[in-house]
Amino acid sequence: MATQHSRSAARLMMAPAVILLLGWMLVPLTMTLYFSFKKYLPLRGDSLANGLEWVGFENYVRFVSSSSFWPSIQTTLIIVGGVLFITVILGILLAILLDQPMWGQGVVRILVIAPFFVMPTVSALVWKNIFMDPVNGLLAHLWKFFGAEPVQWLSQASLPSIIMIVSWQWLPFATLILLTAIQSLDSEQLEAAEMDGAPVLKRFWFIVLPHLSRAITIVILIQTIFLLSIFAEIFVTTAGAFGTKTLTYLIFQRVLESQNVGLGSAGGVYAIILANIVAIFLMRIVGKNLDA
Amino acid sequence: MTLRVRTLFGACAICALSTAATADNIVIATVNNGDMIRMQGMTDDFTAKTGHTVEWVTLEENVLRQRVTTDITTKGGAFDIMTIGMYETPIWGKNGWLVPLDDLSAEYDVGDILPAMSGGLSYDGTLYAAPFYGESSMIMYRTDLMEKAGLSMPEAPTWTFIREAAAAMTDRGNEINGICLRGKAGWGEGGAFITAMSNSFGARWFDEDWNAQFDTQPWADTLNFFVGMMNESGPAGYATNGFNENLSLFQQGKCGMWIDATVAASFVTNPNDSTVADKVGFALAPDNGLGKRSNWLWAWALAIPAGSQKVDAAKQFIEWATSTGYIELVASKEGWANVPPGARTSLYENPNYKDVPFAMMTLESILSADPNNPTVDPVPYVGIQFAAIPEFAGIATEVSQEFSAVYAGQQTVEEALAKAQTLANDAMEAAGYK
Amino acid sequence: MARSVTSQRKTINTVAAWTVGLLIFFPILWTILTSFKTEADAIASPPKFLFFAWTLENYAIVQERSDYMRFLWNSVIIAGGSTLLGIIIAVPAAWSMAFVPSKRTKDILMWMLSTKMLPAVGVLYPIYLMFIKLGLLDTRIGLVIVLMLINLPIIVWMLYTYFKEIPGEILEAARMDGAGLREEILYVLTPMALPGIASTVLLNVILAWNEAFWTLNLTAAKAAPLTAFIASYSSPEGLFYAKLSAASTMAIAPILILGWFSQKQLVRGLTFGAVK
User: Is B425 on the interface with A (CB under 8 A)?
Assistant: First the structure.
């Protein structure tokens, strides 16, 4: 269909975006790779200008052999998986609810999408202090009201708390995409099934869910991209204590708190590998689903 | 640019309008503590006196540290003045990243700065940062609760007494905890407290060959004592309590004792914020009879990064903000209890300040802290609640996270110490100490 | 709607949906309410919901401490500028991917998205050093560029999915009428794609507005946006809930209002065109 002329024009038009992104990826990537093989301790006076000492794979070995490494991978996967699970499940339920006829649907939709507009820093600060504080937090008051001992959210239930905060931020996104998908569902098909006497659960399982699969894929893809790199929520709430150190946070600790750029860069390379594994994995499912 | 400014300075030395001609705009990075916010509000006075204008970058402590450290190590030059502490100053000074403050004016009177402060803010005898305020730590206690428990606080108590007193004052039914202490992760939070406390138990971070010492008995004693006492008499959830959390607990009347920064004294005795303002007594931080008390030494100070283009204006600002003149300015507007404490000898000789209830105990605490000999056994580092080496902040943050997990009941003291030992040795090895 | 609905069922739906909606919105509502309390009321036990002495003093204190308008203006420029620049670069790319697809189109798209997964902190030092070299530190243009690059994959992808929905026959027809490439994009494609572009713009303004790592680490006094503004309000001393709430409200209000007013476009934007 396309002519030779339009093909070369197309390449030309794609060029700026591709070159820019390539640069944005390659320059830091090259530097990260370079640093990861060097001893680079800025506070000890190491700097690019003075030349850096080559240390081979030492940083790579050290990063993985640290007792924090595997727990951090685990934490990362738990947070990403937990948030995906909660937002997809609640998102589907909420989408179905919002699809029902009701009064004031527009207003409810506004209420539901609001958390998406809140900066992660603000949301973390507000949740940590105003809600989860064990003495003055609103949840503590609620617990006390029912005669229960207030929960020390960010120490005793640190991971669930963070998953909850992040889920709150991303639930609107999942809900909206799923809602749009549900709205496009052929209602006659559902009615026919209803007349045939198919029970609610069966209708959901065999008609609604397959219809949503594409939307669910989008939710998972986009959210994973953002969730792998969440930082502010952890920095503000627990600063990595109580088993909430993700891989991203561990790299932050190595680079900025320990001021060991070489070690942190090696961690960065690991993170890139992890991201790519996840990306390939996602592409497999998404690619299949998106072609449809 | 600098040359031009200098020339203009020279040329206009006699003309009164000189300031307008050389007006600079300096960028200052600072922490969002109350005293700094107050300083921000007084900026107009500085501008009126010198003509220079100021732009403030006020950040929360952790963000500030990360921001200024990145900038100084890369020579970014984003700031003309940075607010840093006793930990950073000698390290950065050693690297030649700070402008030496060795030519401050005679009327500024460098000699008036408390020796403990200027000592901690110098490297190799040269001052690299001027203290805005200084602090040690001490015991703040409720005189009424102490009396009710039938005890009286000695001026220099022992840990044993503190633990007994804490247990006697605790009344959980009425939400009164005998003692509130920092348990929050972070080297400047719970890490600072436990380190200062460990000094009085005879523990140390490293031996003279930079071997981590968490496998020694004094550390186990320190942690076991701390956890035992806090479980008996501390508030629920102390694992996440830092300075501010404890401050508000104390102000709300929920703590019998609180061992923390001396600057807190002005907040707990301020009737506007504190419900117990008139019932607070002070004492030296406790010891164990080993010759070291558990008080720390810290200063928030102003320093000029070596790359700054506006060194002259920056120096003028530092002279203004850390001078006796500034102290008087604050005193005239907000009262003597609110002046930045702990930096200047003359403040403690000022008859107006002697009326402030916590003044003398603050001074005594500061004077009793010795960063050069912080521990019972000899150590290769300087610093009481920290070791002034570049690796410390990273290591101590991770170690304090392990400790906080103990406070939250998620692991045992032994597990935490074993992890701390490994990660401290790893980091020291990575940094090339071994 | 073909389904017949009893009003009883509608009532149940309404009650359920409103309950859930208010529950999700509650943290924001509570923050806004707290911003009008005194610090003492903010921690009152039991908490005061509506019956407290309403005050504006927190807003006055926040404004006195930091010049809100300057931060706001920086946020507007940075979020707006980066989105605009991103759109300019992404439209041609998305066009060619949608209408002249090759075997590698999908791979390129996925690769673009995967660049978003790199942990930012790992490259802080390289980027910081580059910014110093290029004189971009603490400049709005520097942040515009960085945020544009961060969001470019999302922009390209969204536009691609919208463009793909436009039937190819229309373009064929335009070509038959003798329209060149330029005319084709300008007069045929753009008007049809305008709603999609609007949605893309909205979503990316939000993402750029809320970005808190680079905006915090690459700025000082001059280019600092609202993310830096909020970083000074978790006070280390004394009561601060009310002030924190006021600052939070000020930081999120503009984008919240923008989002609410453009809800329709945004909802479409969020679906990435891929959901029908």
Answer: no
Tell me, yes or no, if B242 comes closer than 8 A to chain A by beta carbon.
no
What pLDDT score was predicted for residue C40? 84
Question: pTM to 2 decimals?
Answer: 0.89
CA atoms of A130 and A140, how far apart (whole Å): 10
CB contact under 8 A, A241 and B401: yes
CATH architecture of A62-291: Orthogonal Bundle (1.10)
Average confidence (pLDDT) over A98-126: 90
CB C191: neighbour CB atoms within 10 A? Answer: 9
Of B397, B405, B422, the CB nearest to A257: B397
Collapsed DSSP state (helix, strand, coil) of residue B158: strand
* Helix boundaries (H) for B190-216: 190-200
| CB-CB contact of C35 with C59 (8 Å) | yes
Residue with tokens 């060194």: B311
Q: C155 and C220: one domain?
A: yes
> In this predicted model, what pLDDT tens digit does every residue of B265-283 receive, in sequence order?
999 998 988 899 999 999 9
CATH of the domain at C98: 1.10.3720.10
Residue B231 inside a domain? The answer is yes
What's the rounded mean pLDDT across residues B235-258?
91
Question: pLDDT at position A63, please?
Answer: 92
* CB-based contact C228 B59, cutoff 8 Å: yes
* Helix or strand (DSSP H, E) at A72: helix A69-99
pLDDT by residue (tens digit) across A155-203?
889 999 999 999 999 999 899 888 888 887 777 777 777 778 778 888 8
Number of domains in chain C: 2
C213 CB-near residues (< 8 Å, 6+ apart)? A231, A232, C120, C121
Instruction: Please identify, among C16, C36, C59, the residue that sits at the C-terminal boundary of a domain.
Output: C59
pLDDT in tens, B190-220: 999 999 999 999 999 999 999 999 999 999 9
Q: Which residues of C touch A117 (CB under 8 A)?
A: 206, 210, 252, 255-256, 259
Residue B418's domain spans which residues? 137-296+377-430
Same domain as C76, residue C95: yes
Residue C171, pLDDT > 90, answer no
In a domain, B258, yes or no: yes
Chain A residues whose CB is inside 8 A of the B397 CB are 239-240, 253, 257
